[in-house]
């Protein structure tokens, strides 16, 4: 019995990083889905709704730079949910819930050797921050763009091969079509990791510097 408990305890920390973010995401959805906004809230959300009906940046449908990828996804959501305000808000909530998973993955990538509890606490703290919590249900591109940026950051930090970094860069380019500010959250990190991978590959595999670089992330 003692041996079985030891085995079960040893499995706990390994499973926690994957299970806990999912539970937080489910709780996040449960607290947001019942409170979908009944109407559009400001000029930007009205422009997004008009863009879902007919994409025309020259007519501010939506406003520049146009958010083409965001509108493409929103059109898919609107095909399932006819009301534009509800469709845009539902999309934001789903993106913010997925952002919880991306956030947890990013925190774990920063220091995989750190106790799991630290990444859990950081995820809960960021998820329940008022700006993140209330922006999640707004019919705007904020939550969707941030979720995409977090996922790309997690992929970038974990990249150990050039192919993975290229994939992250391509995703960053697409995410810029969701919200242009994603560029500032992803491109500097991509550039840093590109130099990091280049320097690591240029060093002898057994060198001390190579070992230190390989443990950075």
How would you portray this structure in words?
The chain is mostly helical. It has 10 helices and no strands. The protein has helices spanning 2-32, 43-53, 68-80, 84-110, 116-127, 130-135, 142-157, 162-175, 182-202, 208-214. It starts with a helix and ends with a helix. Residues 1-14 and 203-217 have low confidence and may be disordered.
> How many E strands?
0
Order of helices and strands: HHHHHHHHHH
Secondary structure category = mainly alpha
Q: Percent helix among the residues? A: over 70%
Q: Termini distance?
A: 38 Å
Rounded radius of gyration (Å): 20 Å
Oligomer: single chain
Flag low-confidence runs: 1-14, 203-217
Query: What is the strand content?
Result: under 5%
Largest sheet: none
| Apparent shape | flat
pLDDT averaged residue by residue: 86
Secondary structure tally, helices:
10
């Amino acid at each position: 019995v003692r041996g079985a408990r030891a085995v079960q305890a040893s499995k706990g920390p390994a499973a926690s990083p994957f299970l806990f973010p999912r539970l937080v995401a489910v709780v996040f959805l449960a607290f947001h889905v019942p409170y979908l906004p009944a109407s559009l809230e400001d000029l930007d959300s009205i422009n997004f709704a008009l863009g879902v009906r007919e994409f025309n940046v020259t007519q501010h449908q939506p406003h520049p730079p146009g958010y083409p990828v965001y509108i493409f996804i929103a059109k898919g959501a609107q095909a399932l949910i006819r009301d534009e305000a509800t469709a845009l808000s539902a999309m934001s909530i789903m993106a913010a819930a997925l952002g919880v998973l991306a956030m947890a993955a990013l925190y774990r990538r920063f220091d995989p050797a750190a106790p799991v509890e630290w990444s859990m606490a950081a995820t809960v703290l960021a998820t329940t921050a008022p700006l993140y919590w209330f922006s999640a249900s707004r019919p705007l591109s904020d939550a969707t763009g941030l979720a995409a940026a977090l996922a790309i950051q997690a992929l970038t930090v974990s990249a150990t091969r050039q192919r993975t970094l290229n994939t992250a860069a391509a995703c960053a380019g697409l995410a810029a079509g969701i919200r242009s500010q994603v560029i500032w959250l992803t491109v500097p990190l991509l550039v840093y990791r590109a130099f990091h991978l280049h320097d690591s590959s240029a060093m002898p595999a057994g060198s001390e510097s190579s070992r230190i670089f390989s443990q950075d992330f």
